[in-house]
Amino acid sequence: MPTYSQRLNSRVQHLGTSALVGLDPRWDWLPEEITDRANAAGGSELEVQARGFNYFCREIVDVVAPLVPAVKPQIAFFEQLGPYGVMAVQEVIQAARDQGLIVIADAKRGDIGSTAAAYADAWLAGEDPDAAPFAADCLTVNAYLGKDTLQPFVDACIQRNAGIYVLVRTSNPGATVFQDRSMDGTTLFESVADVVQSLNVDNWPDDAYGNVGAVVGATWPEELNALRQRMPHTPLLVPGYGSQGGTAADVAGAFDAEKLGAVINSSRGINFAYRQDRYVAEFAPNRWREAIEAATHQMIADLREHC
């Protein structure tokens, strides 16, 4: 059975791109067509907004499924709407899996022992979409509580051919406050990177990449290059491209010689392309789907040119 990394790399090679589309719905930014449709069905404010998020994200999935290997729903945007939002993201994930997309649930879970196992059991469906309540292939994970907190997730990755991405060097400016702390000449983020690499070597020694990935921001290109070398067996998830200022040239160091080993995320720049000046001039408000498609093609072309 193919591992998570093998399944992802297969789609990257088939489509010829490492572009990853984040799904970050925001009610005030949704197209009027979507908000009108959501309101027409009635219900409480939370129910209406969750319905709108469901409609919008599934439309994005329809547009990008033939173009990119994976999508990354940001779970927080759905959870803020309570049970309605949770049900909405469950349907969005399933819709993406139905179209053959790899789904990375960006939930940043992390805890000790049985609690971590429960998170893994809930989110990591892996190869079989029916293996968990949420049908995600992969989950983002926070390792702040220690190496032992990763083991339940690793166990699920092995059992279900699922994947995780551990926060290593995040894209936000404030990352330096903790992540740059050094002991015996090694920073905290380098220490986490070493643990991630060792988990892959120990559990998937015969594969080019293991199923334990690392989140490394495009906003730190020098560290990204160094971490690619430090974690040669580790797949990377690279946020920070586009709206956060990272460029295609900044992420070039994330890839191996075969242009594999990383996926590059863009969320707002694609989700809300129809709000950007460059696309407003070309697409009328009711052509927002075409703007999303155009922005996705532009990202794919940009990565191909510079990576």
Considering the chains and any ligands shown, give keywords for the structure.
eight-stranded parallel barrel, two-stranded antiparallel sheet, 307 residues, single chain
Describe the structure.
This protein is of the alpha/beta class. It has a single domain, classed as TIM Barrel (Alpha-Beta Barrel), CATH 3.20.20. Helix content is 47%, strand content 15%. The chain is built from 14 helices and ten strands. It has an eight-stranded parallel β-barrel, surrounded by eight helices. The protein has a two-stranded antiparallel sheet with strand order 6-7. 50% of the residues are buried. The model has no long low-confidence stretch (mean pLDDT 97).
Fraction of residues in β-strands: 5-15%
Assembly annotation: single chain
Q: What is the number of beta strands?
A: 10
Number of helices: 14
Give a quick summary of the entry:
This protein has 307 residues and is α/β, with parallel strands linked by helices. The chain contains 14 helices and ten strands.
